[in-house]
Amino acid sequence: MNTPDLNLLLTLDVLLSEGSVALAARRLGLSPSAMSRALQRLRDSTGDPLLVRSGRGMVPTPRAVELREQVGELVQQVLQVLSPSPSLDPSKVNRTFTLLCSDGFVENFGPSLLTKVGREAPGIRLSFLSKVRRDGSYLRDGTADLETGVIGKGTAQELHTRALFRDHFVGVVRQGHPLLEGDITLARYANCGHVADSRHGIGNDPVDVALNALGMQRHIVTSVAGFASALALARNTELVATVPECHTRYLRSDMVTFPLPVAIAEITLSMLWHPRLDADPAHKWLRSIVREVCLE
Fold this sequence. Notes:
By secondary structure, this protein is α/β, with parallel strands linked by helices. Helix content is 39%, strand content 22%. The chain is built from ten helices and twelve strands. The strands form three sheets. It has a five-stranded mixed β-sheet, with helices on one face. It has a five-stranded mixed β-sheet with strand order 9-8-10-7-11. The protein is rod-shaped, with a radius of gyration of 32 Å.
């Protein structure tokens, strides 16, 4: 089966609208001879003369009259498909977005994000998904629409990213912890029992790298895969947790936070998304809202 030339749809629409080869040619910027050839191709495709001579003009055949409205609607639909998306009205969007993020992000930024989205786009629902894999597969297969986190070596190269904010590490202990009795020196800090972040591998956490550069190491008692879990253990034990300050603000509200006695490089929290969603108006709006909430 031969594929029809869909460009002929526009030509047919103009011909049936103008009822004249000359006028249709002028409207489309073609020569009369080129338009006559296009009309002949249309006649061959439809098996109908479409326009026939009547005195000095041309009149449509019954088949052409039958096609006129249908062709006009098809052309309008094609033009809409091939045109940029119209301006987005968030209040009229009805859609669910899944955000892949840590518990700390949900607790710190989730309430403000839900409030802002609910106020401006009540038809948009946010679903928060915990991280299990960090290879971008959730974004690639469409399980998640947007991810927040620190870009690392394992981040898929095809993903689009934008920085949200920079964060620095702090030490956190329970109220009444022995470490608080006196100055928090580097030696006292390192000799305490620590809960480490297992996502980096034991001994490869940024704080361990910084301590190793000084010829020291901390006493790691246990490890967990997340800052929320680290704080939960430190809240009820003698362990020290080392966590990002902004990312855990509410998670450690009932604990004591102190500046680290060792310099650790800051981290940048970013949002990541798959290229297929880059131009999607609703997704662009969501990204702007996430950024606004984080900047606040």
